[in-house]
Amino acid sequence: MRYLHTMIRVSDLDASLDFFCNKLGLVEHRRRDSKVGRYTLVFLVAPEDQGRAIGDASPLIELTYNWDTEEYTGGRNFGHLAFETHDIYKLCRELMDSGVTINRPPRDGHMAFVRSPDGISVELLQKGEALEPKEPWASMENVGGW
């Protein structure tokens, strides 16, 4: 058995691609439109996994956009996606500067949570050892649910 991907339904494909690609830094691996099924699938890969993505050997995120509008609920009950980063403080600062709310700041220098435009919880983890706690993160409060 081999892990392939995690699928999440999105209500606004452009907003989701902006969040996952432009803000989190994932890369579009492939895309498929189905006129019969009336949906678009977009598979994303983390930059460090791109080399393994040939032949889909890397874990992928599948964004499923159904062309006919439908309200999706959940987000938190989905669980979360998790990504490792080389500098959690730098990534959180870049996300904040681009308008993303840091729901659970990296007070411990190790873990933070944000949400996608559809409310999917995304965990960010510091690669290796936790960074030394520092401001403004150390005293920053949680915002909303994560």
Textual characterization of the structure:
This protein is α/β, with parallel strands linked by helices and 146 residues long. The chain has two domains: 5-66, 2,3-Dihydroxybiphenyl 1,2-Dioxygenase, domain 1; 76-139, 2,3-Dihydroxybiphenyl 1,2-Dioxygenase, domain 1, CATH 3.10.180. 14% of the residues lie in helices and 32% in strands. It has helices at residues 13-23, 88-97; strands at 5-9, 27-34, 39-45, 60-66, 80-85, 102-104, 111-115, 121-126. A four-stranded mixed beta sheet has the order 1-4-3-2, with helices on one face. The protein is globular, with a radius of gyration of 16 Å. The mean pLDDT is 88.
What portion of residues belong to β-strands?
Answer: 25-35%
Q: Quick one: CATH class of the largest domain?
A: Alpha Beta
**Count, helices:** 2
SSE order, one letter for each helix or strand: EHEEEEHEEE
What number is the mean pLDDT?
88
Please describe the biggest sheet, giving its number of strands, its sense, and whether it closes into a barrel: 4 strands, mixed
Number of strands: 8
Q: Classify the secondary structure makeup into a structural class.
A: alpha/beta
- Biggest β-sheet: strands ordered side by side in the sheet: 1-4-3-2
Distance between the termini: 31 Å
What number of structural domains do the residues give?
Answer: 2
Computed Rg: 16 Å
What is the annotated CATH architecture of the largest domain? Roll
For this structure, what is the CATH homologous superfamily of the largest domain?
2,3-Dihydroxybiphenyl 1,2-Dioxygenase, domain 1
Percent of residues in helices comes to 10-25%
CATH topology of the largest domain: 2,3-Dihydroxybiphenyl 1,2-Dioxygenase, domain 1
Shape: globular
Stretches where pLDDT is under 50 for at least 5 consecutive residues are none
